[in-house]
């Protein structure tokens, strides 16, 4: 078929939800276009194989040199294939804070308050704690996205939580309920010991639907626009280009990097920039690719005498080898680890409206996004700034659709961000050097005088990078400059919607997978109503 009612571009967290929901009642034909493959393999499904996914066929993007990071080039991996980044992430199930969504509504995004979005979080969620009851005021028990408790956390992760408790910090077993601030073991998007990506939740159950056409390994080259309406998509598949037409709508769900990139390749974006890249202007839309926000993140690292932590040694290799066999046979044991097993939320100042620092504790030593091998055993902890002020951009490197975009998160451009991160890192060190973590006999791999602002700032600029939560590049808003309106319709062209993290007017205070799925759920309902 070359014509469908709806085309969905991108099979990631939001796109999977959109395609799955729009095809489930059989009333409309849906074509899901994904640049990568099916992601139906052992590496993706086994949670503990996550470090090896770096070698998978993912988007391994780099940033432009970051002046706030001493001119370093940052790393921006994104998922490629069905499930998108939910097929390579740490599976942490976090929605953000109630304040985030109420703030969106206050910014002019009518219908996006916490009370508006909560039903969609619950609709998407199949939380193991509520599988018999169907849910409670905050959670769903029978939604497609499986959410599980961790059954085999590392002793180091348990010690991290106990260390926080010993420092009089609140301990939580639910970061998505009435309260967010505190420390604990995270819930994860897993089911029966396997990763549960957005594709497994929404796309795979509909794979045999006659009205759902899933086209993988199909690179979108541009949107087709006729008389002010997006009518289809030009894709590169196998050995040539082909056009697929949409009778009803095209939904762009290619992510915070991919969606603005595709728009700009289609001649939709900042006019001057498109002219520089020798592209014909279809619509001057200056905000396409603007407003990029991401959680700047600092990772501390400690080597331990204890070998209970995950590590590179003969003993550690044998343990993991046995664990892989156990997982293949039973789907149990330590290979269910998300690595970011524990963590939580903390407020750096009593005046902040919601916690502004998040921690991810990893019972292993981590360097350069796991790309650098580190001998021995130890633990690490991430501290990220949840509501940064710095904004960046997504631009074209060239007009070749296969070329990566030019990514500039503009990290630490605003001095308030490093001031907040400084507080977060100091607070994190208190936990990392408190008992019972001290029982592992840790040694800080990057020791400095923590009371010295200049020394700490220097270390932050040497080591900080993304924690993989880019958003905002096709922002939603009630103003004329916004890229989409509150029903996710593109402003300036008919027949086009955007549904992914790019529409966030402000970054959420937490991991972005669950909010992206919520956005996909909402988009499906908007589109059903609009096309009825």
Describe this structure in words.
- The structure is a single chain.
- This protein has 532 residues and is α/β, with parallel strands linked by helices.
- Helix content is 25%, strand content 23%.
- It has helices at residues 13-23, 42-45, 98-106, 114-124, 155-166, 198-203, 255-265, 271-276, 314-330, 415-432, 453-463, 513-530; strands at 3-9, 30-33, 59-66, 72-78, 125-127, 145-147, 182-185, 190-191, 194-195, 212-215, 218-226, 229-237, 240-252, 268-269, 283-284, 296-304, 311-312, 342-346, 357-362, 376-385, 393-395, 406-408, 442-444, 465-466, 496-498.
- Strands 7, 16, 17, 18, 19, 20, 23 and 24 form an eight-stranded antiparallel beta sheet that branches. Strands 1, 2, 10, 11, 12, 13 and 25 form a seven-stranded mixed beta sheet that branches. A two-stranded antiparallel ribbon has the order 3-4.
- A hairpin with a 2-residue loop joins β8 and β9 (194-195).
- α1 runs parallel beside α12.
- The longest helix has 18 residues, at 415-432.
- The two termini are 22 Å apart.
- The relative contact order is 0.19.
| Helicity range | 25-40%
Percentage of residues in DSSP E strands: 15-25%
Total number of helical segments? 12
Using only CA atoms, what is the Rg? Answer: 22 Å
3D shape: globular
Query: From the helix content, strand content and strand pairing, which structural class follows?
Result: alpha/beta
Ends distance: 22 Å
Report the sheet with the most strands, covering strand number, pairing sense and barrel closure.
Answer: 8 strands, antiparallel
Give start-end ranges of low-pLDDT stretches: none
Mean pLDDT: 97
Strands, total number: 25
